[in-house]
Design brief:
- The protein is mainly α and 563 residues long.
- The protein has a domain at 3-113.
- The protein is built from 24 helices and five strands.
- The chain starts with 12 loop residues before the first helix and ends in a 6-residue tail after the last helix.
Amino acid sequence: MVYNELHYERIDVEKSKQFLMDIITDFESAETAEKQIAAIKEIDNFSRDYMTYNAMASLNFSRNINDEGAKDEKEYYDSISTDMREVYDKIDKVLHESKFKEEIIKEYGKTFLDQIEMSLKTFDPKIKDLLKKEIELKNEYTRVTAGAKINYKGKEYNLAGLGPFHSDTNRDTRKRSYEARFKWFKDNEQVLDDIYDKLVKLRHEIAITLGYKNFIELGYYRMGRSDYGPEEVSRFRKQIVEYVVPIVSKLQEQKKDILSLDKLYFYDGINFKDGDPKPKGSPEHLVNAAQEMYHELSPETGKFFDTMVSEELMDLVNRDGKRPGGFCTSFPKYNRPYIFSNFNGTDHDITVLTHEAGHAFQNYSSTHHPLVNYHWPTMEAAEIHSMSMEFFTWPWMKKFFIEDTEKFKYKHVSGSLSFLPYGACVDHFQHWVYENPDVSPKERKDKWLELESIYMPSRDYDNMVFAKEGGIWQGQLHIYQMPFYYIDYTLAQTCAFQFWIKNEKDSDSAWNDYLRLCKAGGSLSFVDLVKLAGLNSPFEDGCLKHVVDHVDKWLKDFNITDM
């Protein structure tokens, strides 16, 4: 059965609530652990259906924001989400108060109850209307950015469609394409300012209503972070400034020489004078090559990718009306993941076929768990699977880049390292924003520029007004839609680099560690999953420096002058 043939329906919210309330009653009156565990299984079965239909509605809208039917379904599930959340909050409370906790832990593990405890800290019925407003504002950001129409060289493009011009070998083309991009953002600046200002103030109000000082603590609970907090993250960011920023600054100086430029500007994002590596062949060819690659990587990945292809569980190519970006979602009713992206002819197309496939493979490998809660880990752990898969697939990059394979590897490593300061900057910015919810849009942009000077001191936007005024972060959807979901990428990248290092020494051992991590799903916390994979926690003293030293040596040994 292919994706378009999967059963979808609108659940009846009143019947669903009553069904769950009846299970709650049975759970509370249960006189044995077995009866409570049976009730948990009933709840889990319902959750699989609800989560699947919700995910399908969201995906269908992302695939075509101009489809009124898809929009209606997405809006329906958005509209019932807070009512459903209220019922799930009641479920969490009775589970938390169970007299058979020991038996439940024996059946499902401690993480299940830890997740419930975290969830209870993020909801109260009195914030229902505020949560509805938050969803509406997040959807408005999606509508605005997905509906972008940018005139460039006599044609109309969306944001993803401009991507190839940003990496063109002609400097003027790169500059003009970024000017067109930033003009669109400048034209929509007031709308984007207004959406974010409302989101920040709304999230602050939600936090205050729940008894928190500000949104930060609540934001961490929302992310399910049980074994670290803002202090650990702050120390990690400082290590990035100390160990990574100087190396990235040197890479920028090196790039200036490679490109034969007197000065580097933001639009000089290419790594090689004759252009960055581009995948060879049509999207169909790339998928076929990926299928061969995953068969050669392991039996598990071969079977997984065959399923993705045969059941049409990927929508990869950019087109009008499609939401920007890439992501992986899942349908637990059918035990299937789904990959969404916007191929645009750049090397990023291959990154999607490895990064998002890493997410999908982990989910596919975790469906053996009896609880749907364990099909995905927390976000920072989930990004380990995706970023590590990018490195595990290195031996097959020749299938996609042929003579440009070494160029791709250099860009991959240097780009992954250079990303760390940007990721830390986004995180630092968000902490400041939610500590100061009442500042003006201009003050936020001024703060962004201040942080840029710390994390990315070599950035120069030339005469691009929108970016020079500190607005570039408004194109980062995570800042609007998933607050605090960005440091996750830097933590995971640190772990992915460790897998890369291990894979160079003993590929079989590294792959077995990775497979064990994927199969564990969300059954453990971030720090415990890292231990399970035989990795060092990014929060441990010396971890980041050790990783960065190895990456720095690899980059220095790479003979880039021959490229």
